[in-house]
Amino acid sequence: MKYYFICNWKMYPSSFGRARSLLADYNKLFVPTKKENWINKKIIICPPSPFFQLFDEKRIHTIKLGSQNVFWKSTGNYTGQISARMAKDFGVEYAIIGHSELRTNGDTDILVNLKVKEALKYYITPIICVGYKDYLRETQNVLNSFSSEEVNKMILAYEPIEAIGSNNPENPERVERAIRQIKKIIYQRFRKKFFVKMFGLGGNKNNIPRPAILYGGSVNAQNYKKFLSIPDLSGFVIGRESLNPVNVKEIALGFNMGEKESNKRF
Ligand code: PGA
Fold this sequence. Notes:
This protein is α/β, with parallel strands linked by helices. Strand 3, helix 3 and strand 4 (94-97) form a beta-alpha-beta unit. The chain is 36% helix and 16% strand. The structure holds 2-phosphoglycolic acid. 2-phosphoglycolic acid is lined by residues 8, 159, 164-165, 216-219, 237-241. The site of 2-phosphoglycolic acid has 13 residues, from strand 8.
């Protein structure tokens, strides 16, 4: 099982020089060693797009590049937008899609679906945030629009809007319940219907995808341990705290509960 730590730098730091030195700190801290091999943990930094270029120049292989958004078209007269195709060209492998801070600025379920489609087209893994208004409806929207194979190429992030940028993380029991609910609707959406099974249409096997499910919202080095006993949690989206790579490392190293629960994701 893999664990993901999505470092959402948001609109920080304030200059190219500071971004360069922040990345240099990450590069120093995440060098694989015998003790810290990072093999099952992915550190994905999502900087503002003007800083993508820095990652092209110097980045150790344990750090992956993500985008905070992509536009829903590949090219055209769209002032101020960044296409998945351009992002890919800079080495972007992941893209946060449907973050509440973008839904507040107009990203609807329809746009989220189009952006996810566009990301998949360029082999970028979409990290789809749910929790802006109704995480169940938002999850359902994505599940209803994509196939099981496509959902397997996604990461879902439960991010209740009240917890983002607030210093008030969601209560761990609620996160656990939300993850259970998300798994349940994935199951209901993709299990084979009884009559399909009965007549052997499309094979006999259920085809249930197993996307990683993360939590995001005011996670920091002081509070992350509260979430570690949640059985199916596969990592965190870390916003402001990701400007402190020492703390990101502490969180990622501390995330070892998976070994006991790792095979029970579904
Ligand atoms: P935060 O941001 O950790 O600063 O609350 C979370 C996010 O951007 O998803």
